[in-house]
Amino acid sequence: MKIINVTANDSGQRLDRLILKKYDSLPKSMMYKQIRKKNIKVNGMRCHPEQLLNEGDKIELYLNDDLLKEKQKHYDFINAPRLGDIVYEDSNIIILDKPQGMLCHADGKDYVNNLVASLKRYLYEKGEWNPESENTFSPALANRIDRNTGGLVIGVKNYTALKTISEKIKNREIDKYYLTIAEGKFDKESDTIRAYLTKDEKKNTVTVTDSPSENGKEIVTSYSVLDYKDGLSLVEIKLLTGRTHQIRAHLASIGHPLLGDGKYGKTHGRFKQELYSYKLCFCFITDAGELEYLNGRVFESNLCDIREKFYEK
Predict the structure, then answer these.
(1) What per-residue confidence (pLDDT) applies to 11?
(2) Does the first or last residue of the chain, that is N or C, have fewer Cβ atoms within 10 Å of its Cβ?
(3) Judging by DSSP bridges, how do beta strands 205-209 and 217-229 pair with one another?
């Protein structure tokens, strides 16, 4: 028999999801069968797969040890680069200013040089997170931006924050603003444009069309032109949907590729597009529970230099 002691970061999770996260050797069908046979209990009582757990609960698993091999924990984050600029931090979230050229997550080749690994190292060294005392939770990023796009990323320190911030992003209750330099002069100074985006996983590129297509997802992008000179536009973008390469591909599709974009621009190659996620606005319209104190807060990057680059050109 093994016992899982439910921690604060496990609270609110479904029983079946927590068990499968912790034990990768336990087949899903076997888990459901053992729950039905009462070989898996919560607090000594019969349970059901979708049961929500509370801190302090005890999950008892009367199964053979070969079915309960825990997922191997990796500590590569110890060697990750130290965190750079921290825009804001409290006990639940941390807003980071990611530099251009840095990955948000591991790419399958390098598990060290990325933002989430640096976040784990930072919280581990501060004593705010210890993987040995957690069943399944580890610090995470609630949003992500492209490698060569710089800007604000929300890190979360506990499961409650992860769940809440993820819901707010999904429901568009956190506004994300970008600054960019785009080629050409826009016909309209401001507009909200809609299209459909299809992703090619193998090539890591996307295609934008005006009409729905198979596997295409709707994208909505709002822009305002702040200034124009010498064939270039300084543009503020409000991202209303968050698809892969959305801003880059969407603006390129209407004839205004981002300056330096070697993938969707006019000149192909390995360049860094002039794009920065420079502002986050927390504008909750539904209750945020423990994170309600963030409602109305606005955070801006300390490192964004898009304006300076525009006026230098």
Answers:
(1) 92
(2) N
(3) unpaired
Give the span between the Cα atoms of 219 and 211, in whole angstroms: 11
The answer to whether residues 9 and 137 touch, using CB atoms and an 8 Å cutoff, is yes
**Residue 70 per-residue DSSP state:** B
| Token pair recorded at residue 268 | 């192909």
Cβ burial 21-52 (10 Å sphere, 16+ → b, else e) = ebbeebeeeebeebbeeeebebeeeebebebe
Give the pLDDT mean for 103-127: 92
266-304 pLDDT, tens digit each = 776 666 899 999 999 999 999 999 999 999 999 999 999
Longest CA–CA span in the chain (Å) reads 73
With a cut of 80, say whether residue 78 has pLDDT above it.
yes
Q: Please count the other Cβ atoms lying within 10 Å of the Cβ belonging to residue 55.
A: 12
At 127, is the secondary structure helix, strand, or coil? coil
Residues 204 and 195: their CA atoms lie apart, in Å, by 19
Please, what is the Cα angle at 91 between 90 and 94, to 5 degrees? 50
pLDDT digits (tens, 9 = 90+) for 193-223: 999 999 988 888 999 999 998 889 999 999 9
Cα angle value 111/206/114 (rounded, 5°): 15
